[in-house]
Design brief:
With 219 residues, this protein is an alpha/beta fold. The chain has helices at 10-22, 34-44, 62-73, 88-96, 113-124, 132-142, 151-161, 166-173, 177-191, 199-210; strands at residues 2-6, 26-31, 48-51, 79-83, 102-106, 128-130.
Length: 219
């Protein structure tokens, strides 16, 4: 499985290369800026990418903007954002793009290598891997749409957004499969979302809805 990394910290990028190599991935290229990342994606057509939010020259949002551009150029390209920062606007936009796996993990909160590797594989396979803190900030930004949800429904929504399936949600919350299905049905009904989508697509639909700008007369 080929990986392209966009990370300007040499120690971190070297560490990623080593641990991914041991986990069976092949790092096709490491770029230290957005332009280099885009070039590497075009050349290697990776199975998954790892991107820092802030890259040279301004260290603001070059990385995540490059990830969005890469997904426009290569629809379905799996992207795992690995950063110290939650860039809310672009994170919401990235999550709202259709097709391909998406993840957003915070460097300071990745405590186990096996969990990181599992998250990367999940994104490569078309799923989602979201740090709870990222979800919390996006949901807080959304405000009113979740006001109608019960505390339990908000817990279920958060676990859905992290990429957990119904069985995993039931185990974590110690509730039955039927209860999980009921909560998810209530969530979609209250948010006005169709219940037909499954897998990560329904997660992206929920997050896209939560983060859509609200206005009374268009944008």
């Amino acid at each position: 499985m080929r990986v392209v990394i966009a990370e300007d910290n040499v120690l971190l990028s070297t560490g990623l290369e080593l641990l991914l190599g041991r986990a069976g991935f092949r790092v096709a290229a490491v770029a230290d800026d957005a332009a280099g990342f885009l070039t590497a994606v075009r050349e290697h057509r990776p199975d998954v990418t790892i991107v820092d939010v802030r890259l040279p020259p301004s260290f603001r949002d070059e990385g995540i903007r490059a990830a969005l551009r890469a997904r426009r150029e290569h629809p379905g390209l799996p992207v795992l954002v690995l950063s110290q920062y939650v860039e809310q606007q672009y994170a919401a936009e990235l999550l709202a793009t259709s097709g391909g796996g998406v993840g957003y993990l915070l460097k300071d909160r990745v405590s186990r290598v096996d969990q990181f590797v599992d998250a990367l594989r999940r994104v490569a396979d078309g799923g989602t891997a979201m740090d709870p803190e990222v979800i919390a900030q996006l949901v807080h930004r959304a405000g009113d749409p979740i006001a109608a949800l019960t505390p339990r429904e908000r817990e279920v929504l958060g676990l859905m957004a992290q990429g957990h399936d119904n069985n995993a949600i039931g185990r974590q919350l110690v509730i039955t499969d039927n209860a999980v299905h009921k909560h998810i049905g209530n969530i979609f009904a209250k948010l006005g979302l169709a219940v037909s989508d499954s897998g990560h697509r329904r997660v992206l639909a929920v997050l896209a809805y939560l983060n859509a700008p609200r206005s009374t007369g268009g944008h």
